[in-house]
């Protein structure tokens, strides 16, 4: 068996309506599988189990609305080189454009 990192993308959708201002989450999970396809299937199973919904209250009124974290897609599957996990092992890498770095370094309000 091999180790894989699987990048899962989720989107927080408010009241069932997707907008350009939705919050996104990327989860990178570690999966032990025989093949990349098996790792992808396990990543999908994990992603579906992570979907959930909850109510949030509005700051300006006494109303609440539903937020649903929805699995969108597996962004990538990467095999981790080597046979053993150890401190400092690189499990994921990607190349970024300037706009992506700016986004990563911009804190949420």
List the helices and strands and how they pair.
Blueprint: E1 2-14, E2 23-33, H1 36-50, E3 52-57, E4 64-80, H2 98-105
Antiparallel strand pairs: 1-2, 1-4, 3-4
What would you say this structure looks like, in words?
The protein is an alpha+beta fold and 109 residues long. It has one domain (2-105). The protein is built from 2 helices and 4 strands, in the order E-E-H-E-E-H. It has helices at 36-50, 98-105, and strands at residues 2-14, 23-33, 52-57, 64-80. It has a 4-stranded antiparallel β-sheet, with helices on one face. A hairpin with a 6-residue loop joins strand 3 and strand 4 (64-80). The protein starts with a strand and ends with a helix.
Number of domains: 1
Query: What's the helix count?
Result: 2
For the report, how would you describe the main beta sheet? 4 strands, antiparallel
Strand order of the largest sheet: 2-1-4-3
Uncertain segments: none
Based on helices, strands and strand pairing, what is the structural class?
alpha+beta
**Radius of gyration in whole Å, from Cα?**
17 Å
Return the string of H and E elements.
EEHEEH
- Note the beta-strand portion: 35-45%
| Helix content estimate | 10-25%
Give the N-to-C terminal Cα separation: 42 Å
Oligomer: single chain
